[in-house]
């Protein structure tokens, strides 16, 4: 019984770690600024090189801006919400424009 409980604990731990690593956020330098990329199981899911919800093409000015925006989108995906951002959400990130 003790061995079975230990085995179950190990399996659950591995599954929890695996689930967290399914989605991954990275940032990268682009020709006009910075971008973030979200992959799912190593395959491209989202590549965003412009600040979302703002009319026009406004690149991320810093790696930090791209990272914070990508982190918000990633948290929405992890919570099974649609990954779009509103103007209010973008404003709350206080991005450099």
Can you describe what's shown?
The chain has 97 residues and is α+β, with helices and mostly antiparallel strands. Helix content is 42%, strand content 21%. It is built from 3 helices and 3 strands, in the order H-E-E-E-H-H. It has helices at 2-20, 63-78, 87-92; strands spanning 23-29, 34-40, 43-48. It has a 3-stranded antiparallel beta sheet, covered by helices on one side. Strand 2 (34-40) and strand 3 (43-48) form a beta hairpin. The radius of gyration is 17 Å and the shape is globular. The model has no long low-confidence stretch (mean pLDDT 87).
Fold blueprint:
Blueprint lengths: L1 H19 L2 E7 L4 E7 L2 E6 L14 H16 L8 H6 L5
Antiparallel strand pairs: 1-2, 2-3
In a few lines, what is going on in this structure?
With 97 residues, the chain is α+β, with helices and mostly antiparallel strands.
Tags for this model:
single chain; alpha+beta; 42% helix; 97 residues; globular
The percent of residues in helical segments reads: 40-55%
- Order of SSEs: HEEEHH
Contiguous helical run count: 3
Rg, alpha carbons: 17 Å
Shape descriptor reads globular
Low-pLDDT windows of residues: none
Terminal CA distance: 60 Å
The fraction of residues assigned to DSSP E strands is: 15-25%
Mean pLDDT: 87
Could you describe the largest sheet, including whether it forms a barrel? 3 strands, antiparallel
Biggest sheet, spatial arrangement of strands: 1-2-3
Structural class: alpha+beta
Number of strands: 3
């Amino acid at each position: 019984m003790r061995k079975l409980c230990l085995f179950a604990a190990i399996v659950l731990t591995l599954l929890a770690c695996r689930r967290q690593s399914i989605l991954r956020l990275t940032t990268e330098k682009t020709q006009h600024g910075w971008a973030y990329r979200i992959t799912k199981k190593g395959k491209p899911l989202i590549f965003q090189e412009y600040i979302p919800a703002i009319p026009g093409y406004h690149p991320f000015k810093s790696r930090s801006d791209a990272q914070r925006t990508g982190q918000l989108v990633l948290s929405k995906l992890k919570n099974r919400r649609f990954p779009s951002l509103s103007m209010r959400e973008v404003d709350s990130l206080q991005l450099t424009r």
